[in-house]
Amino acid sequence: MSVLSGSVNLRDVNLKPSKANKLLSYLTLPFNLKAGMIGKLALKFSLLSLWSNPLELEVEELMVILGPNMGVVSHDESYIDDEDLDESYDENNMFNIFEH
């Protein structure tokens, strides 16, 4: 790590689900982070002109495991209610992936 030269390189960075899920819930996304890891994280910046030059962030080998966020309720009209299903709907069909 060479902060004075303007570069920070980290390997095998574990993501904290509790911190990431606060951000995800603020954005009202329908999933939570269960586990995550970044294989390589590189940060490049100019220490002398930190406020005027861009900050470069490079991420390699991002691995995440996501699960549903049960706290998010959608009011989107694109969801199908049970009463709106067509009579041709066959709940015994093995290709039907949705539970009703």
Overview of this protein structure:
This protein has 100 residues and is mainly beta. It has a domain at 7-71. The chain contains 1 helix and 3 strands; from the N terminus they run βαββ. It has a 3-stranded antiparallel beta sheet. It is elongated and about 65 Å long. The relative contact order is 0.19. The mean pLDDT is 79.
Strand arrangement in the largest pleated sheet: 1-2-3
Q: Number of helical runs?
A: 1
Q: Strand content of the residues, in percent?
A: 35-45%
Helix content estimate: 10-25%
What profile does the largest beta sheet have? Answer: 3 strands, antiparallel
Return residue spans where pLDDT drops below 50 for at least 5 consecutive residues: none
What average pLDDT do the residues reach?
A: 79
Structural class: mainly beta
